[in-house]
Amino acid sequence: KAKKQKVMLQKNLLKEWWVWVIALMGLILWLSSCTKPEPLEPTPTKRTVQQGKSDFLPNHTFLPGEARSFDGMARFHTSCWYNTLGEDNYDWNKLFGVYNPGDLKKNHNAFILAWRPDIKIRDCFELCLYENIQGANVPHESAIFKVKADQLFRFTLEEINGKYSLYIDGVLVDTQRNDKLFKVIGIVGTWFGGTSKAPWTMWLWMDIN
Description:
alpha+beta, seven-stranded antiparallel sheet, six-stranded antiparallel sheet, globular
């Protein structure tokens, strides 16, 4: 009889063990279903310039207004890398910026995030602060920030009392040298050149807040 009771106890324990395993598996599944999925990397608006053109489309639609800060994100496609323009390889293209609409020209007083290919490294790009000061071109080439194709990066044009500073991925790249304060601004959209036009169709992704 004692032996029979021992066998029964062992069977009950075995049965309960499987119950606990099933309960544990159910708990794990329930917890995994409650876990928030990892957020997807944002996909900014695709902007394209056609071969022989300069404008990346679609354009930005900001109207002139009071000077303010801008936050943005961007990512270059490999099509934006080139090494076929001779001396014009070193020209700066415009990614995004602001200008003084009172000058009636975008390249008279402007504060711009500019880009060009790093011709020494395939699919690598250089970024810098580029200013127009009373019509003169003033790229800040002593402060270059590099990114790779398909690398998402964030940037800020920070405005304080009419003066701008450029940040890329939270790093201060450089500050405005122009003594002229920005009170009202227009937008400098994404533009190829320089003096040359796009050698082929190129595209990148960018959005501004």
